[in-house]
């Protein structure tokens, strides 16, 4: 990767690629490592590893917020904000089932099976990207709006053993949401507090909301 051009061994001309960071000058990059991989849906991705300066801490927001994760609503904050759970996997379940039935009917090793497998992979990629977009938007908004974020230490691995709720819990992406909060808080100078999973946070929030309603 030199001068904004990506070349592979035994290629006569540079490869075309789409640069997804408009704020960075690709011609000035000198990556330490370049990784090229092919996803099951047939798309190729190029990943650059570069040294970058640490970002400046965000200005103080003057508030703390608690986050209670759930299935009906993806998250409810201590100040009453609700983040709706879009249920990406449920919305595409019918298409996924149809593609998987077609894949099961194809002969192993055939070209039609490869095409059917690519369609299944593309459907999963759309679900994965939509879920990732929701998690990034929600975590970034929380990090920008609060100095301290409090979440619960959920036992996700144990919760997905419930066959009735396994798919719904997996579709929420709670583990990925916590991972994003951890590295974003560390990067921008915020505090992330993880409380014990046995602490009655949901009941406390319900009692707090009921008290507010009575006060009104």
Question: Can you put this structure into words, describing what you see?
Answer:
The protein is an alpha/beta fold and about 220 residues long. It has two domains: about 1-50, no CATH class; about 65-85 and about 125-215, no CATH class. The protein has seven helices and seven strands, in the order βββββαααβαααβα. It has helices spanning about 90, 95-105, 110-145, 155-160, 165-170, 175-190, 200-215; strands spanning about 35-40, 45-50, 65-70, 75, 80-85, 150, 190-195. A five-stranded mixed sheet has the order 5-4-3-6-7, with helices on one face. A hairpin with a 5-residue loop joins strand 1 and strand 2. Helix 2 (about 95-105) packs antiparallel against helix 3 (about 110-145) and helix 3 (about 110-145) crosses helix 6. It is flat. The model is unreliable at about 205-215 (pLDDT under 50).
Question: What is the gist of this entry?
Answer:
The protein is α/β, with parallel strands linked by helices and 216 residues long. Helix content is 43%, strand content 17%. Helix 2 packs antiparallel against helix 3 and helix 3 crosses helix 6.
Keywords:
alpha/beta, disordered C terminus, five-stranded mixed beta sheet, 43% helix, 216 residues, 2 domains, single chain, two-stranded antiparallel ribbon, 7 helices
Task: Provide a count of the helices.
Answer: 7
Could you give the order of the helices and strands?
EEEEEHHHEHHHEH
Profile the largest sheet. Answer: 5 strands, mixed
- Main sheet: strand order: 5-4-3-6-7
Give the helix level as a range of percent. 40-55%
DSSP, total strands: 7
The structure class reads: alpha/beta
Global mean pLDDT: 84
């Amino acid at each position: 990767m030199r001068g904004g051009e990506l070349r592979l061994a035994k290629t006569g001309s540079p490869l075309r690629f789409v640069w997804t960071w408009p704020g960075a000058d690709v011609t000035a990059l000198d990556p330490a490592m370049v990784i090229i991989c092919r996803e099951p849906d047939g798309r190729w991705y190029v990943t650059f590893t570069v040294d970058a300066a640490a970002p400046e801490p965000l200005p103080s927001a003057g508030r703390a917020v608690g986050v209670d994760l759930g299935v009906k609503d993806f998250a409810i904050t201590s100040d009453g904000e609700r983040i709706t759970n879009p249920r990406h996997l449920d919305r595409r379940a019918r298409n996924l089932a149809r593609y998987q039935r077609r894949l099961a009917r194809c002969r192993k090793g055939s070209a039609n099976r490869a095409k059917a497998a690519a369609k299944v992979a593309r459907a999963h990629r759309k679900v994965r990207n939509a879920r990732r977009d929701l998690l990034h938007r929600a975590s970034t908004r929380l990090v920008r709006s609060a100095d301290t974020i409090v979440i619960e230490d959920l036992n996700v691995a144990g919760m997905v053993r419930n066959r009735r709720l396994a798919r719904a819990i997996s579709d929420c992406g709670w583990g990925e949401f916590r991972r994003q909060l951890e590295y974003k808080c560390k990067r921008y100078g915020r505090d992330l507090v993880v409380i014990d999973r046995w602490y009655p946070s949901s009941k406390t929030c319900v009692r707090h909301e009921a008290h507010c309603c009575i006060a009104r």
